[in-house]
Every structure is written in structure tokens, then in C-alpha cells.
Design brief:
CATH architecture: 4-Layer Sandwich
Order of helices and strands: EEEHEHEEEEEEEEHEEHHH
CATH class: Alpha Beta
Largest sheet: 6 strands, mixed
Shape: globular
Strand order of the largest sheet: 1-2-3-4-5-6
């Protein structure tokens, strides 16, 4: 498998391009607007064609380059089927599989940070049949979890997030690596580590949010940082204007 993160350390944002070098197919996930050309160029430099561009959710802290990258490369632009955007997209459902040669991606609907949030469980068949890593978007961070308040109904969303973590992500094998959408510097959670990746076993032991009972977890998530600057304008762009010429 070929794998490349795109990190923005000043804002704590992460995007990813990965895929199968054998058949030359790749996916791009959570690519920022300013990384569109770099993501496309990286894939081409490795002899891969981006066939799927995925946003794990409609971002509230930065302008997505997802739709623009899909249009540039001819790839499918993918969001969970519940996403509310005006651009055309390929709807993903919970449990769906995306085939990229020896690289396989399973879509897991993990609402909580937002209703349409997904995580992506990735397997490399050359390595084995067990999952290698999961792109957790804004659901699970290193040392923290996603904030539930950006779309309103914070306590209800926090309850959904608890279920997504304990009923889905934490049921994966302990040695699965996690690559979240953010690390320290982001306002999409509280207490994020500066380390941009981890494993589920490490998070189960050291992430303070994962050992809490449901009611305590919900109460704790009420303590959130300020909204990202320009959040409403960013959401409007990502829902309606990202496909504009």
C-alpha cells in the first residue's frame, strides 16, 4: 500500500491519500482546499489514479477541497448518504466496501461529531485480511474525541458519539492504527495530542474519554472550546459552494 498524510501543523488538520500501487487506484480523504493540486500530483507520481474522494463529514473548521479534487481527477465525490449538501455526491452507506485493488476500505457510519460522520477501516490484502488502520475523521482523536456541539443538540450528539466509539470503533482489533482528521491545534475537540496517529490499544489505555460511563462522558463533552473562526461561512462553502467554478 502507498500512504501519504497531508498535515497542517498550524491548524492541526490532517488529510490522506492512499491506495494500491499494483493496480494504480487510490482514495483521497479529507483533503483541504489548498492541497488539491498536491494530492493529485502525489497520486500521479506513484502511478495511481484517484478514483474516490471522500470527506468523512461536512467540515466546519476549514474549506474542503474534496469536490474540487474529484472534479479535477474524474473521481467519485463521496459522503455518507445522510449528508446535506447541494453538490452531487456518491452516497456511502454503513458497511459499504470500496475496492482499490489490494487496498480495501469499509465505511463505518460514526455519528456524533456530526450526523453524517464516517470512519474508514482500511485493509491491505498483501499484508493480510485483518484491518491495518482506520481513518477516524473527527470521531476519535489521539487523546480526545470529537466535539458534539457544532450542529446543535450537543447532549444528543454526545450520546451518539459514545455509541459510535463503544459500539463500532472500539470493537476493532487492538493493534489497528488510527489516523484522525485532527491533532493539537484544532478546535474540533479538547485535549488533542500533538501526535497525529496512535493505535486503538494505546487509546483504550490512555485516552481519558474512553473510560467514562455514558452520563459522565456526555457531561464532560459539554466543556468545549470556542467555535472555529468563520464556522458558518466555512459550512456554507462546504455545503453549497465547493463545486462552484
Amino acid at each position: 500500500m502507498i500512504f501519504r498524510p497531508f498535515y497542517h501543523f498550524e491548524t492541526g488538520c490532517a488529510g490522506y491519500v492512499f491506495g494500491c500501487g499494483t493496480v494504480g487506484r487510490a482514495a483521497a480523504v479529507d483533503v483541504r482546499e489548498e492541497d488539491v493540486d498536491a494530492a493529485s500530483a502525489f497520486a500521479a507520481s506513484k502511478g495511481m489514479r484517484i478514483t474516490h474522494v471522500i470527506d468523512t463529514h461536512v467540515h466546519a473548521d476549514h474549506r474542503s477541497g474534496g469536490f474540487a479534487l474529484a472534479r479535477q481527477t474524474g473521481a467519485a465525490y463521496c459522503l455518507h448518504q445522510s449528508a446535506m449538501v447541494s453538490m452531487p455526491f456518491e452516497p456511502m452507506r454503513d458497511g459499504a466496501d470500496i475496492e482499490l485493488g489490494n487496498t480495501r476500505v469499509r465505511v463505518v457510519h460514526t455519528p456524533g461529531h456530526s450526523p453524517e460522520s464516517v470512519s474508514l477501516v482500511v485493509t491491505d490484502l498483501k499484508r493480510g485480511f485483518d484491518p491495518w488502520f482506520v481513518l477516524t475523521g473527527d470521531t476519535l482523536f489521539v487523546g480526545a474525541v470529537g466535539r458534539p456541539d457544532l450542529r446543535g443538540r450537543a447532549r444528543e450528539s454526545a450520546s451518539d458519539l459514545f455509541d459510535s466509539l463503544h459500539g463500532k470503533l472500539l470493537t476493532l482489533p487492538d493493534d489497528v492504527e488510527i489516523y484522525p482528521g485532527h491533532f493539537s491545534g484544532s478546535l474540533c475537540g479538547t485535549g488533542l495530542s500533538g501526535k497525529p496517529s496512535s493505535t486503538l490499544s494505546f487509546e483504550k489505555r490512555w485516552n481519558p474519554m474512553l473510560s467514562l460511563e455514558r452520563d459522565t462522558f456526555i457531561d464532560r463533552l459539554a466543556d468545549v472550546p470556542p467555535e472555529p473562526d468563520g464556522m458558518q461561512q466555512i459550512l456554507h462553502f462546504n455545503r453549497h459552494l465547493a463545486g462552484a467554478p
